[in-house]
Amino acid sequence: MKKLSSILLLGLVVLASACHKDDDSNDPAPTSGADIRGVITTDQHWTKDKVYRLRGYVYVANNATLTIDAGTKIISNNDSAGVLVIYKGSKIMAEGTAQSPIVFTSGEATPKSGDFGGLVLVGESSGNGNHKILEGGVDQAYQNFGGTKEDDNSGVLKYVRIEYAGKAVNPGDEVNGLSLYAVGSGTTIDYVEVVRGLDDAFEFFGGSVNPKHLIAYNCADDDFDLDDGYHGKIQFAVSIKNPGFTDTKTGGDLSNNFEVDNTNGKISYATTPITSPVLSNFTAIGPNNAAGTSVDYGYGMRWRRGCKFILANSIVMGGQKAGLVLEIAETGAFYKSGVSKFYNSFLHSVTSPFLVSSEVVSTIDSATVANITTTTNLSKVFTDAATIKLTDPFNNAAPNLKPQAGSPALTTAAKFDLTELSSFEKVSYIGAFDGTNDWTAGWAVWNK
């Protein structure tokens, strides 16, 4: 990738007179608005009366702030998938509304995954150094991330939709729908949906950000991928898998609702800070062995490589190969000691509800995991997903995850009595929704 060193200001694309790079000489003009390239080093304001087209990697740097109005549309074409990188010290102020979300999407007449590269926030909160630089082929000048500012502020993402994202540079080196590198707790992320992404929906590389109301819908790899010492909190989130859609796999990889690691093994699994997310009120829907389910679907929850976790007041159902999986002895030890918990939650899977890897068996076996989960941790295992009584969870084109009247999700009281859960919003139900309100209404989309 060529090194970018100058700011390219917004301007209307006029094909007859515009100056283009050689590989852009035949670009179609966007419907209205501007082509965006290069590095933004001063404050800019994008308005909903224009359509903005990202050409390749675009960096907001030099402590600049990019403000995006509610209702604004940002597109990308598949010949030059746009990646918007908000670099350390800079901010994005993208605050849509339920009626007028901000949408990052494909500019193609027939959109497909990978047309848009992705949205990347780079902060100065802490991580454990597992990843040394940003993934995805970013310019060398913008590869570093992290620091010691736990309350670092990268801005606001609110009522934002990211569609058809994913840029695979090399195997294992991709841009996700929303990538969060050491993003700090001063950042606001609330009501964000990633739709039909080619790789992970949300990936957290360290950091302390505390999002709410997240939706991962029909993404090809993992929906919530947490690693590098991420130590934030997330409440109210949805993961829905399309049974036939997974990305290209290498090295025994699988697509999961959750995939959580401390390190990738190139450095010690005990490297601090240890990945230790605290999560509550998730509803995660796997493929549930529907017709045409990809062989590359794996687990509802894949906890591995030395991570700690608390997942509480949640529903994980339809996992293909297993429900709750523990890998690596350190991960198993955290569960056995009670540091990690799948707490006051519901679990259903097509096959084994609990699975431990060969490295874990000597520390804790699957029968002990089941016993701890259903006794000490107060969670319930369901052999039939219908017994949980969500309205229409496996209707991928039009999912309805609200619990029906009489659902155990409504009759089982949520619990926030763990110290780690004390700062969460106190609701009465299990999962992401009560039986009445739908916080996805108006701004989220389905059937893509």
Could you please describe the fold and organization of this structure?
There is one protein chain. The protein has one domain. 5% of the residues lie in helices and 33% in strands. The chain is built from three helices and 30 strands. The chain has helices at residues 329-337, 366-374, 408-411; strands at 33-40, 44-46, 51-60, 65-68, 73-76, 83-86, 91-95, 102-106, 118-122, 155-163, 167-170, 173-175, 178-181, 188-195, 202-205, 212-217, 224-227, 233-240, 258-260, 278-285, 299-303, 310-312, 315-319, 322-326, 341-343, 346-349, 352-356, 380-381, 390-392, 400-403. The strands form three sheets. The chain has a 26-stranded parallel sheet that branches. Strands 11-12 form a two-stranded antiparallel ribbon. Strands 29-30 form a two-stranded antiparallel sheet. The longest helix has 9 residues, at 329-337. The radius of gyration is 21 Å and the shape is globular. The chain starts with 32 loop residues before the first strand and ends in a 37-residue tail after the last helix. Residues 1-31 have low confidence and may be disordered.
Describe the main β-sheet briefly. 26 strands, parallel
Distance between the termini: 31 Å
Compute the CA-based radius of gyration: 21 Å
Number of domains: 1
Share of residues in helices: under 10%
Structural class, judged by helices and strands? mainly beta
Whole-number average pLDDT? 92
Low-confidence stretches: 1-31
Strand-residue fraction?
Answer: 25-35%
Number of strands: 30
- Number of H- or I-type helical stretches: 3
The shape is: globular
